Hints:
The protein is α/β, with parallel strands linked by helices. It is about 40% helix and about 15% strand. The strands form 4 sheets. It has a 7-stranded mixed sheet with strand order 2-10-9-8-7-3-4, with helices on both faces. It has a 4-stranded antiparallel sheet with strand order 11-12-15-14. The protein has a two-stranded parallel ribbon with strand order 1-13. Helix 3 packs antiparallel against helix 11 (about 275-285).
Amino acid sequence: MTERKFRPVLHALTANPGNEMMRYAQGKDDIITLGQGEGDAPTPDFICEATMRALKDGRTFYGPVLGSNELRQSLSEYYERIYNLDIPSSRVFVTASGSTAMHLSLAALVDKGDEVIAVTPIWKNLLGAVELTQATTKQVALDYVDNEWVLDLDKLFAAINEKTKVLLIVTPSNPTGWTASRDELRAILDFTRERGIWVLSDEVYGRLVYEGVRAPSFLDVAKDDDLLLVVNSFSKSWAMTGWRLGWIVGPHEAEAKIRDVALYNKLCPPTFTQYGAIAALEEGEEFLKQQLKLWHKNRDLVVKRFKKMGNVHMSYPKSTFYAFFKVDGQDDCIEMTKRLIDEAGVLLSPGSAFGEEAKGYIRLCFAVSTERLNEALDRIEAVICK
């Protein structure tokens, strides 16, 4: 009887294999966790100190629905400084996490019967967010060609039809590390603009690149009034995963609509944490630089170790802190991930968590200390090279 009282859409939600693996590993001894998208560095002191000052100053009351004017202006200045883009603060909407930014965006754009085209592999939570809106999802997978992930634009455009309301894309990509070029971004926007289709771009990993300062952004090639929402987060660049603070950049007309949705969702982002976010934007470049130095070293280590094993295949990620790999003869990623938990004491994320075409793959997050990563790779090798 109790089951009947919940919305039918909740009964129809597809499982999240990555979360299932976390539950499977819970309580087991000596587990090295590389299944979540975070490192082991705590949030740096300068961010925490700015937040503590805000607490001591009594910044604990309700704030504006779309974030404080100070943080929105700081984000505007960040785009000018890092991206060389003129994004006025009125087009920046602060949210309580990047995930919340995605939910608010989808809630504002799609309804039951609408269709979302999702470029996969993609983080399962984004697909789940679409399911909650009762829109349908059509997955268009990246192709794996000559050890590289590539986007077939013809295949992508062919998937779009009269029901398509939103194109959902993550660039740089979690989990593959693929990053759209500026020409690809321009081609996508040109195509969707002609058809009145929204682009919802997750650019959370935009600063996690190993060449240059940042990845190409849809904002580089967009007009101010394009049907474009860009989602971002403080989590990855500044070790703030637990802070749950993100933002959206959209056209001016989106401000009132996102505010309406956010008002009935979270009311406002946490007030005092926004001062830590300002510190991250204004003082965080050196911290990010040091993190990237570690991740660059770890990426090369993973590539070298997997190549030496001989039976592991992966692309050479140019961005993000993930290795998305496949083991010869091991097509059941759920079974393989469980084996690695049971026999190696290493928690990774199965590829089936990232889309229909990723079922044979496994994702490893290498954003941890090199010592911890080496230990995990030793354990993995002992299992998959038996």
